Amino acid sequence: MVDFRFFRPIGARTLLQILEAIGEDGLLLPPEGAETVISNIEELSVACSGDLSLAAKKSYGKALSATRASAVFVSEELLELVPPGCVALCVGDPHLSFVQAMNFLFPEKGYMTALRPKDEGAGEPALEENVEVGANVVIGSGAQIGRGTQIGPNSVIGPNVTIGRDTRIGANVTLECAMIGDNVNISAGVRVGTEGFGWLDHGKSNTKIPQLGRVIIQSGVSVGANATIDRGALSDTVLGEGTKIDNLVQIGHNCHLGRNCLIAATTGLSGGTIVGDSVLMGGGVGTSGHLRIGANSVVHGRAAVTKDWPEKSMLAGAPAQDIRDFWRELAVVRRLAKGGKQ
Asked: Which residue of 31, 65, 106, 278 shows the fewest CB atoms closer than 10 Å?
């Protein structure tokens, strides 16, 4: 969801105004469609009246047919799935048009990030009793910090960020577009809520996709030094209760980690990786993104996960595979290297 505390919209606009702004005013619309009022951008599954959404490829089909969005940028192959009451905006490149609409409705000057700690509309930060604030700390307007929390020197807490009670924020930390729970430990140099790595037209124009989501870190989470946790594109990046993240870990936008996971150093999770509860990952694991790893799985160090895996999987290798297959293949290669000798 787009949280207006962190991303200020320009206000409601009609579809005709939006299409004119992005150069698609020649698009044919039903008579009532041009005056449809849009006030927000949302994913298909959670969109409601007044929201503009996107359906760019076949994988969007199920969510599109059930959406309650007022309008949707849609590819021609999905046009028949647009439900009654939703205005279909069939354009040549739905994703690009959607990005342009996002930039129009939510211009960067309205981003309430650590770059702009002062927000006149948010009021003063609110600190409960016994909050310890180190030297040179910047706390943005409207931030809320719970009782007994410690903030180390040179850290920046962005506008409207919320931090729970008895949480420890190390030195040189940046928190923006984030909601942090109780008893969380965030080590030195961590960046939370940074802009996700989302682009269109790869290797050509490299058009940036606005990142309008948040980071949610639930209670009892620990984040190691110099880790980076990107905010979501539209939905949130979430770290579940009790999960522990080692040093130098990269969590991409829209990742969801379940409860009580252990993620070792230099692991990188690409955007949209969904990790179930109690998953263990060794050092240097990588995922290709937009995939699921089931609960109680173990991913051994340096594995490269490229597809969905069910609960209780034991994975190793690049690309990752069931660890029993991994050891069998390795044994065969060793025998071949020895000329078939045992």
From this structure: 31
Tokens of 95: 């994703």
Residues 311-330 have pLDDT tens digits of 999 999 999 999 999 999 99
End-to-end CA distance of the chain: 59
CA distance 51 to 44: 9
- Map residue 251 onto helix, strand or coil: strand
Question: Is domain 126-313 annotated with CATH 2.160.10.10?
Answer: yes
Q: What is the DSSP letter of 92?
A: S
- One-letter amino acid at 187 equals S
pLDDT at 340: 61
Could you report the per-residue pLDDT of 30-88, keeping only the tens digit for each?
878 999 999 999 999 999 999 999 999 999 999 999 999 999 999 999 999 999 999 99
CA distance 179 to 57: 32
Tell me the pLDDT band of 121, cut-offs 50, 70 and 90: confident
Give ranges for CATH 3.40.1390.10 in the chain: 13-110
CA distance 275 to 256: 6
Could you give the percent of the chain with pLDDT greater than 90? 92
Which position among 253, 256, 290, 300 bears the catalytic label?
A: 253
Phi, psi at residue 51, to the nearest 5°? -100, 145
Is there a catalytic annotation at residue 253? yes
Which residues, in sequence order, are bridge partners of residue 315? 299, 322
Is 3.40.1390.10 the CATH number for 13-110?
yes
